[in-house]
Amino acid sequence: MTRPLDPRHAVYAGSFDPLTLGHLDIIERGARLFDRLTVGVGINPDKQPLFSPDERLRLAREVLASLKNVDVQCFQGLAVDFVRACGAAVMLRGVRTLTDMEAEFSMSLANRTLAPDIETVFLMASEDYSHVSSTLIKQIATMSRDSAEEKLRGFLPEPIIRPLLAKCRGE
Ligand code: ADP
User: Fold this and answer.
1) Cβ of 150: how many Cβ atoms within 10 Å?
2) Does the Cβ of 100 fall within 6 Å of ligand 1?
3) Is residue 24 in a domain?
């Protein structure tokens, strides 16, 4: 018999390479909306991430340690399968732009076909973070010549800044 999915448990899946203040904002708001929130760090064998899955897991756990109803896990494969394996009935997503919305809309329709009992819930990015993406931040970290830490402070949680700079500088 299949286990019933918990409508008060949501999963927020992504690459989190690395986790940004935009992601953190969605996580904090999601953790207030749901009883439990699982952050799923996706392992995609076709992508070459900057941080390994273990590094992303460890950094996300450090950033999110004070959020008592939030846990972080790695997963491989389809996000809806991970949501089901967690026993959650909700997939949480963040949308920044109209382009995001278009992509997220098709993805949520595909996910509904794959898993009709899992509902996707979207949160609009906060004004302050709607321009923040992991890709943009990696570019800033790579190209900043001076005061890089200060520049990154507007985009990243504190524990991510030094590890990102070290990676980008090949340390
Ligand atoms: P993916 O590789 O699936 O795009 P990401 O880690 O980049 O994974 O993003 C995971 C989720 O967080 C996606 O729903 C994405 O739209 C959302 N997201 C990313 N950055 C932000 C942000 N700055 N504000 C709100 N949502 C965001």
Assistant:
1) 10
2) yes
3) yes
Q: How far does the centroid of ligand 1 lie from the alpha carbon of residue 157, in Å?
A: 15
Catalytic residue among 9, 36, 93, 134: 134
Q: Report the nearest-CA residue for atom 15 of ligand 1.
A: 94
The reply to whether ligand 1 has any atom less than 6 angstroms from the CB of 84 is: no
Residue 46 — very low, low, confident or very high, per pLDDT cuts 50/70/90? confident
- The pLDDT of residue 1: 55
> How far, in Å, CA of 68 to CA of 106, rounded?
32
Which position among 29, 58, 61, 96 bears the catalytic label?
Answer: 96
Domain that holds residue 21: 6-129
The model's pLDDT over 70-99, given as tens digits with 9 standing for 90+, comes to 999 999 999 999 999 999 999 999 999 999
Q: Residues 34-54: what's their mean pLDDT?
A: 95
Long-range contacts of 66-70 (CB under 8 A, 24+ apart): 67/27, 67/28, 67/31, 67/37, 69/31, 69/34, 69/35, 69/36, 69/37, 70/27, 70/31, 70/36, 70/37, 70/38, 70/39
Q: What's this model's pTM, rounded to 2 decimal places?
A: 0.95
How many domains does the chain divide into? 1
Q: Classify residue 71: in a domain, yes or no.
A: yes
Angle between helices 53-64 and 21-33 (to 10 degrees): 60
On whether residue 65 sits in a domain, the answer given is yes
